[in-house]
Amino acid sequence: MKRIVLSIAAVSAVLAAMPMAASAAPWQSVNQRQANLERRIDQGIRSGDLTRPEAVRLRAQFRDLTRLESQYRRSGGRLDMSERRDLDQRFDRLSQQVYAQKHDRQDRSRRY
User: Cβ of 25: how many Cβ atoms within 10 Å?
Assistant: First the structure.
């Protein structure tokens, strides 16, 4: 009986937290995502969490994304849903790469 009550309580807690989690990460415009990624890369460089080759690679990928966005916007002035979805997925991947590179325990101060 205790297991059932604890299970129900755990499920209730998770379900209650879901709306808060959804509102914690509101939708961001493409410009906001670009600014956020650029800020994170800059911070990684300043803190030494990103090595020079990592930063160069991440910046190149960031520039490619901004070029792609410009190309999408030239075709119609606005982003349609498929273009927006594509950019969101690419920004998500780049964001994950920035996180991974910043936390891979390679930094400018360490010598190998």
Answer: 7
Residue type, 72: Y
Element (H, E) at 66: helix 52-76
Summarize pLDDT for 22-65 with one digit per residue, the tens.
444 556 788 898 999 999 999 999 988 998 899 999 999 999 99
Measured from the Cβ of residue 101, the count of other Cβ atoms closer than 10 Å reads: 19
d(CA 72, CA 44): 29
Please provide residue 51's backbone torsions phi and psi, each rounded to the nearest 5 degrees. -75, 165
Selection from 88, 56, 92 nearest residue 72 by Cα: 88
